[in-house]
Amino acid sequence: MDKVKITDIAKQSKVSPTTVSRYFNHPELLSQETQTKIEDAIQKLNYKQDHLARILVTGESNLVGVIFPHLHLSFYTELLNQLIKYAKEKGYHLIVYTSNNSKSEELQLIQNLLSYRVKGLILLSHLLSPQEIEELPVPVITIERTGGNYKQINNDNFTGGKLAAELLIQNDCDVFIHINNDYQENWPSFKRILGFEFGIKDRCYERIVENNFTDPYTSKAESTMQKVVQNLLTKYPNKKIGVFCSNDDIANLFERECIKQDFDVPNMVKLIGYDNSPVSNYAVYPITSIDQNISLMAQVAIQSLDNYIPCETIVPAILVKKNTTL
Questions:
Q1: What is the tally of structural domains in the chain?
Q2: Mean per-residue pLDDT for 99-108?
Q3: Do residues 200 and 169 touch, judged by C-beta distance below 8 A?
Q4: Both 132 and 206 in a single domain?
Q5: What is the Cβ-side half-sphere exposure of residue 8, based on CA atoms within 13 angstroms?
Q6: 8 and 37 Cβ atoms separated by less than 8 Å
Q7: In terms of domains, do 150 and 190 share one?
Q8: d(Cα 66, Cα 63) in Å, to the nearest integer?
Q9: Of 51-65, 108-122, 245-259, 299-313, which range is least confident?
Q10: I want to staple 195 with a disulfide (CB 3.0 to 4.6 A). Which of 105, 110, 162, 244 is the partner?
Q11: Angle at 40 between CA 36 and CA 46, to 5 degrees
Q12: Residue 225's closest CA among 266, 184, 263, 176?
């Protein structure tokens, strides 16, 4: 069977070859009606696009590399869903890796991606220094990581932490707790802690950092949270406790352990997470959370591939009240 050509698709769909080419390269420039006509023609002709030929001819591809540190957290999985959605609209195909928090592995993955002549890279780990990222030969977009001379997309973390503090104060909490798995002072997410601590000022406060919460779905995380909740029950009897967690997954783990130990959520324990990821909605008591607007982060990341300008975009933090702060 002869190989299907662009001109064959144009004839079948009754549009020009230029329009078909635009469909493959910039589908967002075409109406939905035109896209549907071309898609129908592609299906009828059983056309398969030769991505390798495109790379050889143009020296470019519609491939985009994405590297996550891991996919344990709902923030990462929901961000991946949104990146796929917006990439599809732009005609991009994602190659997704996890570096497992290994710098050497991340560097090797980047070399693999560069061999595909990717259009750009989207990075979410804190493993590479700004200088190492700046030296990469393709546009780089980072999300929630230390800045440099490249495109950065970060949440307004300070405001997010401050909003959490203000709501817990409004809920008449006596004791304020922040639970985190890890932080460094140059990470954008550290500003959540600063905003929270600024908001509560001189009130009774404790910061709890446990690395076992990095993957909140392990037995180690569960046993560690059991001890944390037991300690809070012992240390602050008959006190209303306001808890702000660094992400929704840790907040969900905390809530489950409170229920097991008859720690009264949401009456004696007020709980706020961060991200407003799906897990916050599906908890036993839907968890109040700071919305990072994950969809907007993904949209900005994909759009930046076409109009790449090294700068920082700050995405607003929005408080979403749910059952744990009633």
A1: 3
A2: 93
A3: yes
A4: no
A5: 11
A6: no
A7: no
A8: 10
A9: 51-65
A10: 162
A11: 140
A12: 263
Task: Identify the pLDDT of residue 227.
Answer: 98
The phi, psi pair for 200, rounded to 5°, reads -90, -15
Residues 181, 286: one domain?
Answer: yes
Kindly state whether residues 161 and 135 are assigned to the same domain. Answer: no
- Asked if the structure places residue 54 within a domain, the reply is no
The whole-angstrom separation of Cα 194 and Cα 196 is 5
Q: Which of 249, 174, 177, 262 is nearest to 215 (CA)?
A: 249
Q: What are the pLDDT digits (tens) for 279-289?
A: 999 999 999 99
For tokens 């817990």, the residue is 168
- Average pLDDT (81-106) is 94
Q: Are residues 192 and 287 in the same domain?
A: yes
| Rounded (5°) CA angle 204-162-239 | 30
280 inside domain: yes
Q: Which of 38-42, 174-178, 196-200, 223-227 has the lowest mean pLDDT?
A: 38-42
Using 50, 70 and 90 to split pLDDT, how confident is the model at 51?
Answer: low
Contacts of 113 (CB under 8 A, 6+ apart): 63, 65, 67, 95, 97, 121
Q: What's the domain range around 42?
A: 6-49
Residue 55 included in any domain? no
Q: Which residues, including other chains, have CB under 8 Å from residue 291's CB and lie 6 or more apart?
A: 275, 276, 317, 318, 319, 320
167 and 278: one domain? Answer: yes
pLDDT surpassing 90 at residue 188: yes
| CA quadruple 286, 326, 200, 147: dihedral sign | positive
Q: CATH number for the domain including 122?
A: 3.40.50.2300
Are residues 252 and 197 part of one domain? yes
Same domain flag for 129 and 149: yes
List Cβ<8 Å contacts ≥24 apart for 55-61.
55/116, 55/117, 59/117, 60/117, 60/119, 61/116, 61/117, 61/118, 61/119
Q: What is the pLDDT of residue 21?
A: 82
pLDDT number for residue 1: 47
